[in-house]
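Progress note, sequence design subtask.
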């Protein structure tokens, strides 16, 4: 696994990604949906496995799932599991943050 710095420090991540929101990241030509729930960050594949819509355009619900904007498929941010078991699960990416930066693992 390679750790890629996506923010210069954790404070930048907290300032740029608001609680309850998603953001598109493109890291080494890979589309990733970065989501923030309270003070926790999650990174998940940015392509709904049902219809291919970008999950970074979706919303986060009260269960900590990202909801696809097209047909409402829901994916657990921690595991990538499709909540209704109607479509394949998505890949998740680890996040780490320390005084040297905010990183995503590919």
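Output:
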């Amino acid at each position: 696994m390679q750790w890629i710095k996506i923010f210069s420090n954790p404070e930048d991540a907290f300032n740029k990604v608001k609680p309850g929101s998603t953001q598109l990241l493109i890291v080494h030509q890979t589309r990733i949906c970065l989501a923030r729930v309270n003070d926790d960050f999650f990174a998940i594949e940015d392509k709904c496995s049902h219809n291919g819509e970008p999950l970074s355009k979706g919303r986060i619900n009260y269960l900590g799932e990202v909801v696809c904007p097209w047909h409402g498929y829901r994916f657990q941010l921690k595991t990538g599991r499709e909540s209704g078991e109607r479509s394949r699960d998505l890949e998740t990416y680890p996040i780490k943050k320390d005084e040297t930066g905010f990183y995503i693992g590919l």
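The mean pLDDT is 95. Work on this subtask will continue into the next period as scheduled.
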